[in-house]
Specification:
By secondary structure, the protein is α/β, with parallel strands linked by helices. It folds into two domains: 274 residues, Glycogen Phosphorylase B (Rossmann fold, 3-Layer(aba) Sandwich); 190 residues, 3-Layer(aba) Sandwich (Rossmann fold). The strands form four sheets. Strands 3-4-5-2-1-8-9-13-14 form a nine-stranded mixed beta sheet, with helices on both faces. Strand 1, helix 1 and strand 2 form a beta-alpha-beta unit. Helix 3 packs across helix 4. The longest helix is centred in the C-terminal third of the chain and has 21 residues. The protein is globular, with a radius of gyration of 23 Å. The protein starts with 10 loop residues before the first strand and ends with a helix. The model has no long low-confidence stretch (mean pLDDT 96). The structure holds adenosine-5'-diphosphate and alpha-D-glucopyranose. The site of alpha-D-glucopyranose has 14 residues, from helix 1.
Length: 494
């Protein structure tokens, strides 16, 4: 075991393509926003480098790079802003790359220059530190968008000793997104063909930024323990299981935390009433407001349980299981109302819209992205459904637990790690889990949850058990510090 007390103040350079409050398409943005603050609270100095997407305002210029600062690089500036908690944010201001309506793609597909956009993120984060004469104890990169960070550090920053010796940590938030591009782009990334090997960036005769992150880092983390095991299997490894098994000694699962200030039912400004484990009465007022907000108010609605969903509507999230339950007519048979928020694949958006049109008193669907409605659903629903095919960590089930909204989840990844199955005999537990990836298993577990809902005192116990669970960042941030210590030890040996 490493002695944590021996870790002094670390200088952490974090490179991440999303960070709340500046940008977010999913949980990565939540993590990019909250993990730096949690590390700062432990006394470490954190600098976050992220693109300046459309709408990000402010910051002071700390560096400017002319076009061609290195092979193929565009002109860009680096703007900096320090948050009240001491975390320093650096925004890459390169309008040609980042000033767009979306982060990664349009409905027509991925931006064709994503390899250049995210090579710049990786390279510029390092080159900016070099230019400003800064070092780092650890450089922490996330997902394929930052996957080239360890490659550039090892290949291009060697002359800058304060940075070259940094420990390299890479976090996988979702193995399904691998940053795969044609091999022909390699020279445009200012990388040599020597790297086009099995042990390097080569992936089925193409290149993968995710593989670069995995192969060139000292420590690899992923966002739950269960997912760390799953991704080493052929079923859930997305072609990376062999690569990850080879690096199993360097791979660790660290569950995400949740931002307990932004997601606090006792102080949430986006809710019309507040509540806590000590006094749940406000939750009823939130339910009433939610019903009115989404147009489900009417006779009988109040007593009927609300099943909430806030989700990207993609296969990962189990939408095909729901489609199966819709097609068999069984979803509509449940004695419950659905309040659904999300965007994604057109066929799933159409499926929900169709249900809402056919059964307007039972199904309410908002296709779109709304922070406010997400909080209302977490606060006002009775149950929260996450039937994911796979789920590296998942944040919504943890928000649900905190808001007394009992999760019904598939037992996979972080869902399995964070939800404790309600025992049919004792009623102990925090939620409901099903294992087989089938519509029937999902429906069966939903029916079981609804039977428990019909027993108010027992239900209250389940709610309270979840609300008292500690999923804050604190323990997770400490686990990252431990991973950083391991990475530093490994980098010293490289
Ligand atoms: P993933 O990152 O795979 O989408 P997570 O559960 O880790 O899944 O995180 C999803 C995050 O995005 C949560 O904070 C969730 O509330 C938010 N979210 C997803 N869809 C929407 C939406 N349509 N409107 C508002 N928030 C959303
Ligand atoms: C990914 C995963 C999700 C995880 C999030 C943050 O988007 O799909 O499960 O919670 O990253 O780590």
């Amino acid at each position: 075991m490493l002695d944590l007390t021996a870790v002094d103040t670390l200088d952490i350079l974090m490179v991440v393509s999303e960070a709340v409050p500046y940008s977010k398409t999913g949980g990565l943005g939540d993590v990019g926003g909250a993990l730096p603050g949690a590390l700062a609270r432990l006394g470490h100095r954190v600098t976050v480098v992220t693109p300046r997407y459309r709408g990000v305002e402010g910051g002071d210029e700390v560096a400017a790079f002319p076009r061609g600062a290195w092979l193929g690089s565009p002109e860009f500036r680096v703007l900096e802003r320090t948050h009240a908690d001491g975390v320093r944010f650096r925004f890459l201001d390169c309008p040609a790359y980042y000033d767009r309506d979306e982060l990664y793609s349009t409905p027509k597909g991925d931006f064709p220059d994503n390899h250049l956009r995210f090579a710049l993120l990786a390279r510029a984060a390092l080159e900016c530190a070099v230019k400003l004469g800064e070092g780092a104890s650890v450089v922490h990169a996330h997902d394929w968008q930052s996957g080239l960070v360890p490659v550039y550090l090892r290949e291009r920053c060697l002359r800058h000793a304060p940075l070259a010796g940094a420990g390299l940590v890479f976090t996988i938030h979702n193995l399904a997104y691998q940053g795969v591009f044609g091999r022909e782009v390699l020279p445009s990334l200012d990388l040599s063909w020597d790297l086009f090997t099995e042990a390097g960036l080569e992936f089925w005769n193409k290149i993968s930024f995710l593989k670069a992150g995995v192969n060139f880092s000292d420590v690899i983390t992923t966002v739950s323990r269960r997912y760390a095991q799953e991704i080493q299997t052929a079923e859930q490894g997305f072609g990376f299981d062999g690569i990850l098994r080879r690096r199993a000694d360097a791979l660790v699962g660290i569950r995400n935390g949740i931002d307990t200030a932004a997601w606090d039912p006792a102080a949430d400004p986006l809710l019309p009433a507040r509540f806590s484990a000590d006094d749940l009465t406000g939750k009823a007022a939130v339910k009433r407001a939610l019903l009115a907000r989404v147009g489900l108010a009417g006779p009988g609605q109040w007593a009927r349980p609300i099943i909430g969903m806030v989700s990207r509507m993609v296969d990962q999230k189990g939408l095909d299981l729901i489609a199966g339950a819709v097609n068999s007519g069984e979803l509509e048979q449940l004695d419950a109302s659905f309040v659904v928020l999300g965007t994604g694949a057109p066929q799933y958006e159409a499926m929900w819209r169709g249900l809402a049109a056919r059964r307007p008193t039972r199904f309410s669907v908002v296709v779109g992205f709304s922070e406010e409605l997400a909080h209302m659903i977490e606060g006002g629903a009775d149950l929260f459904l996450m039937p994911s095919r796979f789920e590296p960590c998942g944040l919504n089930q943890m928000y649900s637990l905190r808001y007394g909204t009992v999760p019904v989840v598939r037992a996979t990844g972080g869902l399995d790690d964070t939800v404790e199955q309600v025992d049919e005999r004792t009623g102990e537990g925090t939620g409901f889990k099903f294992e087989p990836y089938t519509s029937d298993a999902m429906l069966g577990e939903l029916r079981r949850a609804l039977r428990w809902f019909a027993r108010p005192a027992a239900w209250r116990r389940i709610q309270l058990a979840g609300m008292r669970q500690d999923n804050s960042w604190d323990a997770s941030a400490r686990a990252y510090v431990e991973a950083y210590a391991r990475a530093r030890a490994a980098s010293a040996a490289r």
